Amino acid sequence: MAVQVASPLARTLSRIMLVTAFTALMVALTAIVAWDLRAYHARTTADLQTQAELLARATAAAVAFDDVQAATENLELMQLRPTIQAAAVYTARGERFAAWHRADQSVDDFPPLPEGDGAAVHGRRMVIFRRIVDGSGIAGTVYLRADYELLGRFGEYTVISTGALLVALAIALLLSRRLARVITGPVLDMAGVARAIERDRDYSRRAAAGGDDELGLLAETLNRMLAEIERRTEALEAANAELAREVGDRSRAEAEVVRLNAELEARVAERTAQLEAANQELETFCYSVSHDLRAPLRSINGFSQALVEDFPDAVEAGARRYLDRIRAASQRMGQLIEDLLTLSQVSRGSLQRSEFDLGELARTVLADLAQREPERRVEVSVWSPMPVNADRRLVQALLENLLGNAWKFSARADAARIEVGVLRDGSQQIFFVRDNGAGFDMQYADKLFAPFQRLHSGDDFAGTGIGLATVQRIVHRHGGRIWADARVGAGAVFHFTLPPPGE
Fold first, then answer.
1. What SUPFAM superfamilies is this protein classified in (predicted)?
2. Of 405 and 9, which is predicted with more confidence?
3. 344 in Cβ contact with 351 (< 8 Å)
4. Range of the domain at 236
5. Using an 8 Å Cβ cutoff, are 362 and 382 in contact?
């Protein structure tokens, strides 16, 4: 395949070579010019300082003996140095003692007062001041002014560098084109093979063999890859034929799956309808049980109380105790019915989530407990804020049960204390309700949340054993978990999780 010199790859390589050569030349020329200019400045400064030192020594005696003629003759010797424009000697008081300048210079160019030792550059001039020191101290100052052609040298270097740079770039351009042909030839050949394969899908094509360099290795690798692709293409065509047969079998299987899914959906719809009907019947049954059981219990409780209040003289003390026990049992039965209804309602209905502060709700529940027993003194600590995203009605029932238990079981503590707080582990919030009451034995902790399970006798602490089961169902409905830790006589703490705001 013919190689096109003007290919994009060749132009890119040529540009890269030219930019590289230009950069290298600019760096080299800049370094050379900078070094030479710096060396020129150093040589000029050192030379003038040496001349000033020699002149200071030569004129020291003339200044000391006030010999202007001798000082002038020494200064006129500077005309042998073509670069020196003017020279002068000043007394220790700063008065100009003797001076010399070239014909093209002016007397007015001399400074009125000498400066301290040093060198300074003013445009194209360099000025040197050197103290004249004798045995008694500073006798005066030598002043030299000379040509300083740094800018001129820089201009000359600029012209020379530009010419050298242009010649070098022209040579680099010729070489880059030649090198581009050498590099891009094999690459363009491989690109042509690739385009032919893409157009004709003919994987039997091969690139021309190259030399022993990286391009030759690339051509060899490309040919091996094409051979492997050709082999795999043949294998793929055979696999496609087998796959076509399997697709037919799979289509038939998918048709059977669709039929089974339709049958399954019909069964699910039927079971869902049955479940909804059962839930409706359960709700009706619960309300019926609530009404049918509450009425007899209210009668038993009411008539027992009426016997005691209306016939105080006719009811003996033993019978009064029996009536009190009947009333207590009917009240416990009524409370048990209420708890069972609450437990059944917790599992039904959809969650009405909202964002609120659990700490504020806990304070409301604790205030209600304190109002029921105003004679009790309980230290209460509620953290704030404790935001949650949950069903407020169910969370209130949860707190009423947990705080009610904490209030009840801490009744016999010397200094009752109840704490409600939250621990944060990353984005998870772990709430807790802690008391310092009766506590319980942790070996029975697995029975805590089962309905009708009690770890204390009814004579010590009243209750139905439904509260913690209700709490567990509320937490589980919110996707959380609940657990407890306690010691007998040292109180208990219940931990539970609820969704944080934003979830």
1. ATPase domain of HSP90 chaperone/DNA topoisomerase II/histidine kinase, HAMP domain-like, Homodimeric domain of signal transducing histidine kinase
2. 405
3. no
4. 207-349
5. yes
453, part of any domain: yes
Angle, alpha carbons 154-158-160 (nearest 5°): 115
Read off the CATH number of the domain in which 114 is found.
Answer: 3.30.450.20
In this structure, the answer to whether residues 16 and 108 fall within a common structural domain is: yes
How confident is the model over 82-126, as pLDDT tens digits? 888 888 898 888 888 888 888 877 767 788 877 778 888 887 888
Distance of alpha carbon 90 from alpha carbon 102, whole angstroms: 18
338-373 pLDDT, tens per residue?
A: 655 655 565 566 778 899 999 999 999 999 989 988
Residues 345 and 365 in one domain: no
- 503 located within any domain: no
Q: What is the CA radius of gyration of the chain?
A: 54
Structural domain count, the chain: 3
Q: Select from 331, 294, 354, 289 the least CA-distant residue to 462.
A: 331
Half-sphere exposure for 25 (CA within 13 Å, toward CB): 19
* Helix 392-409 × helix 358-372 angle, to 10°: 50
> What CA–CA distance (Å, rounded) separates 442 from 18?
85
Query: How far is 230 from 222, CA to CA, in rounded Å?
Result: 12
Residue 386, number of CB atoms within 10 A of its CB: 20
Distance CA 107, CA 100 (A): 9
The answer to pTM > 0.70 is no
Tokens at 37, concatenated: 């200019």
- What would the mean pLDDT of 178-206 be, rounded to a whole number? 68
DSSP 117: S
- The mean-pLDDT minimum among 92-96, 231-235, 256-260 falls in 231-235
Beta-ladder partners of 419: 381, 434
- Give the closest residue to 218 by CA, choosing from 251, 184, 195, 248: 184
Domain shared by 109 and 237, yes or no: no
